[in-house]
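Researcher: Sequence recovery benchmark, item below. Answer with residues only.
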């Protein structure tokens, strides 16, 4: 039996996928309300194909509880934030989960940490727990997730995986567990390499995005269309520049690279600069909006609305959202008035002045900042009427009053 610890954006799909492919699974989470919702037959977030997968897993016998189980394999999939002062990983959730596992784990159990962690986290924070508890019989494994909200179910099946273990035999055994559903290549390596590769993957994307964002700033000063520049440059067979945007959100790309900066502050200088560039973009978009307001004689910032709260299109995930980052800087550039905000994917109130229909949102607005390219509006500038559009994601097409980065 497998006990999946943490039933959030990663743990729940993983548990459901394993259960749907013949693995006996119990899902555990400390959040009683979340567990009650799952036991009532409802999922806790929106995701393409998740409800169908949930139904299959329920029919296969998956159960949910707040209690840790006695079983042969544990998969820990809990949050790993970072300390915003020293940039180091905050391993407290992982440590707490692993401690509780050791209280109930039988002799010879396998403890798999699936949460994204910085290199040496298991050596520094998890392995000592085993030594303190006298549980050297427990096999440690790191199996970092590689999926993205909006396409989780597909990517769980088709993406390649990495398994890091002290012992190759243990690694192969865990690889066979994931192979119950994963059709991608599964690489078995040591724990530290597995930790590093996951962080490097997200750091590569963060640096590439930062390059695109800096290009956007350079091209604007130089009077060039950054999107045309990138389009043509990417025709080179060895060039693949990502797209600029209003910032970087989610739990991975804006967070994981900081682990390297925090652990190697004297060395990871290039990575630090890239992350600072990405972090500057929400405020840069605000400045762009402020300039457009002056150009069009808009003096009342309550006439400006923000479309999109999530960190990417067609998901309900607001973690590290560029919109939330932008709202923190709002007072400096737009006078402190609360701009109206709408996101069709966010049903609960996350911020002040949030509305829940497009009609209510558009009423009284003269300008809209389109922070997320949800399919509701992508390529449909006519939905906003004659309002001025700030389009930092380049999703609205061309128009007389459409402003790009």
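Model:
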């Amino acid at each position: 039996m497998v006990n999946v610890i943490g039933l959030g954006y990663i743990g729940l799909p993983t548990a459901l996928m394993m259960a749907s492919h013949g693995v006996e699974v119990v899902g555990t989470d400390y959040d009683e309300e979340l567990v009650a919702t799952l036991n009532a037959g409802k999922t806790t977030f929106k995701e393409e194909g998740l409800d169908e997968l949930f139904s299959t897993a329920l029919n296969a016998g998956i159960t949910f509880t707040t209690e840790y189980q006695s079983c042969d394999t544990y998969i820990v999939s809990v949050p790993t934030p970072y300390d915003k002062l020293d940039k180091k990983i905050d391993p407290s959730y992982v440590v707490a989960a692993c401690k509780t596992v050791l209280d109930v784990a039988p002799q010879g159990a396998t403890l798999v940490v699936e949460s994204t962690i910085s290199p040496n986290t298991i050596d520094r924070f998890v392995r000592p727990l085993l030594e303190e508890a006298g549980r050297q019989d427990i096999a440690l494994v790191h199996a970092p997730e590689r999926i993205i909200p909006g396409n989780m179910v597909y990517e769980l099946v088709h993406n390649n995986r990495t398994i890091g273990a002290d012992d190759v035999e243990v690694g192969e055994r865990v690889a066979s567990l994931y192979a119950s559903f994963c059709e991608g290549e599964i690489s078995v390596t040591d724990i530290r390499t597995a930790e590093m590769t996951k962080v490097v993957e997200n750091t590569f994307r963060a640096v590439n995005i930062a390059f695109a964002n800096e290009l956007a700033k350079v091209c604007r000063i130089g009077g060039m269309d950054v999107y045309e520049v990138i389009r043509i440059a990417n025709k080179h067979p060895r060039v693949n520049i990502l797209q600029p945007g209003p910032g970087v959100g989610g739990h991975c790309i804006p967070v994981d690279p900081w682990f390297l900066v925090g652990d190697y502050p004297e060395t990871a200088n290039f990575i630090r600069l890239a992350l600072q560039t990405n972090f500057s973009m929400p405020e840069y978009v605000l400045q762009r909006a402020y300039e457009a307001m002056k150009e069009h004689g808009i003096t009342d910032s309550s006439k400006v609305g923000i479309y999109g709260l999530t960190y990417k299109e067609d998901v309900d995930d607001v973690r590290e959202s560029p919109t939330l980052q932008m709202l923190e800087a709002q007072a400096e550039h737009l006078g402190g008035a609360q701009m109206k905000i709408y996101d069709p994917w966010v049903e609960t109130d996350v911020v002040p002045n949030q509305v829940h229909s497009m009609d209510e949102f558009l009423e009284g607005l003269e300008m809209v900042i389109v922070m997320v390219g949800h399919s509701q509006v992508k390529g449909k500038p006519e939905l906003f009427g004659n309002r001025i559009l700030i389009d930092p994601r380049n999703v609205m097409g061309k128009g007389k009053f459409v402003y790009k980065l």
